[in-house]
Design goal:
Elements (H helix, E strand, L loop, with lengths): L11 H6 L2 H6 L5 E6 L6 E8 L3 E8 L2 E2 L2 E5 L4 H15 L7 E5 L4 E5 L5 E2 H6 L7 H15 L7 H10 L3 H10 L18 H8 L2 H16 L3 E3 L8 E4 L8 E4 L6 E3 L1 H21 L3 H25 L11 H28 L5 H4 L3 H21 L6 H14 L2
Antiparallel strand pairs: 1-2, 2-3, 3-7, 4-5, 6-7, 8-10, 9-12, 10-11
Helix pairs in contact: 5-11, 9-12, 10-11, 10-12, 10-14, 10-15, 11-15, 12-14, 14-15
The structure holds 5-S-methyl-5-thio-alpha-D-ribofuranose (SR1) and magnesium ion (MG).
Length: about 400
């Protein structure tokens, strides 16, 4: 069903030899090791080491979902990722992997090897605190929000960029998996018997349904900026500072990128902080839960500060005055709360659950899921009374700590 050659370990040196831009960086004759390390839902990922030349990562899209091979998905997603990586790398190079090559025919991108980093979700599960990561991501989202939107681009350039980034198949996955399936009867949904009443209460709540509908509409229609589109903690690599090596935070895996609402990226982070905090809480790690939830306001504060710092450089200050900025920031904050709820709830009800919750013993998992769903209701329905992100996530912490 694929009309292009899918890579395997043995084929990688010959593949590199056929890509001049890549062969200049890595001599295929000096390749010493190739490892397939993909552990996400969708793609193949190879780390290639070469004697005296460092290493490179090759990522190839399969024409199906890796964890569900009977589910076809366009391999062109790789091109959307390359497009976003190039755009984001131009405005936030310290927060994304460097892009070395993009092969539209074989659906492969080559990029910087970040094997000295680890996936943030796993680090959070291990109780580690990567100070600075949340603020880095807030700045990354702000640079992208400003630099790819009508605030940072000439209107014709912004429209051309938007047209290049129309990504209907991947958006459909999000529309279905995040905003629809958890709220209907669907074969993708599964919960513990102990959580059936919690799910019924959440999805049956008219206020929840109205807010989810509004969030889905915003996701589908608010083409504000070229967002990452899937910025959960599994799409973030972190490295702590050691010796002379500085700390580092990188957002990767931008295959869901499209022109969408800026709050969706912040909300993805926030929702995944809720999942990590729910885990920590049921395991009795109250300090870690509080630290994780604090990262929501840390990310927000850095986002807001960076966006405000970029604002004087907007391309059209004639009518885009400071009131427009403040209104936009208010919209992003309110959107992010609803998207956080949607992103957290889908990970405990629908397809593609997360290790934060799934690796808990069953009794603790049931309590964590209950806490996540009650937190999601707060974020969806009650968040409009909050303009203070820190207080909002303090309330989430209270919910998680008192649920049983
Ligand atoms: C079929 S893909 C399932 C999920 O994996 C990605 O990380 C996205 O979040 C998507 O919803
Ligand atoms: Mg992914």
């Amino acid at each position: 069903m694929n009309d292009y050659e899918i890579l395997d370990i043995a084929a990688v040196p010959a593949y590199i030899a056929g890509r001049p831009a890549l062969a200049k960086r890595i001599d295929p004759g000096r390749v010493t090791a190739v490892r397939e390390v993909g552990d996400g839902n969708m793609n193949l990922v190879f780390v290639v080491d070469a004697d005296g030349q460092g290493s490179v990562v090759l990522k190839q899209s399969l024409p199906w979902v890796r964890i569900a091979p009977d589910w076809p998905v366009t391999p062109d997603r790789n091109g959307f990722e390359a497009n976003a990586l190039a755009a984001h790398g131009a405005m936030a190079p310290e927060y994304v992997p460097a892009l070395y090559d993009a092969d539209e025919d074989r659906h492969v991108i080559a990029m910087e090897d970040l094997s000295d980093h680890r996936v943030w979700r796993g680090a959070l599960i291990d109780g580690l605190r990567h100070e600075g990561a949340a603020a880095d991501l807030g700045r990354y989202v702000a640079r992208v929000a400003f630099g790819t939107s009508v605030f940072g681009l000439d209107p014709a350039d912004q429209k051309a960029a938007l047209a290049r980034a129309v990504n209907p198949e991947l958006c459909r996955i999000t529309e279905d998996l995040v905003f629809t399936e958890p709220y209907i009867r669907h074969e993708h949904n599964s919960v513990l018997p102990a959580n059936e009443a919690d799910v019924a209460a959440y999805v049956g709540d008219p206020a929840v349904r109205a807010a989810i509908g509004a969030a889905k509409l915003a996701f589908m229609t608010h083409a504000e900026a070229l967002i990452h589109g899937d910025l959960h903690t599994g799409s973030v690599l972190v490295r702590a500072a050691t010796g002379t090596t500085p700390r580092s935070t990188r957002a990767f895996d931008a295959e869901f990128a499209f022109y969408g609402p800026v709050g969706f990226d912040l909300g993805a982070l926030w929702g995944n902080f809720v999942l990590a905090a729910a885990r920590a809480t049921v395991l009795g790690a109250a300090d870690h839960a509080a630290w994780v939830l604090r990262q929501a306001s840390v990310a927000w504060d850095a986002f807001e500060a960076e966006f405000r710092a970029l604002w004087p450089g907007r391309v059209d200050p004639r009518v885009f005055g400071d009131g427009v900025r403040d209104r936009f920031l208010g919209t992003v904050r309110a959107d992010a709360a609803g998207f956080a709820a949607a992103k957290a709830a889908r990970r405990v009800i629908g397809f593609s659950k997360v290790a934060d919750i799934e690796t808990l013993p069953e009794a603790e998992r049931a309590v964590a899921v209950r806490g996540v769903l009650r937190s999601a209701r707060l974020l969806l329905v009650d968040s409009p009374r909050h303009t203070d992100v820190r207080r909002l996530f303090d309330e989430v912490g209270d919910i998680l700590a008192t649920v049983d």
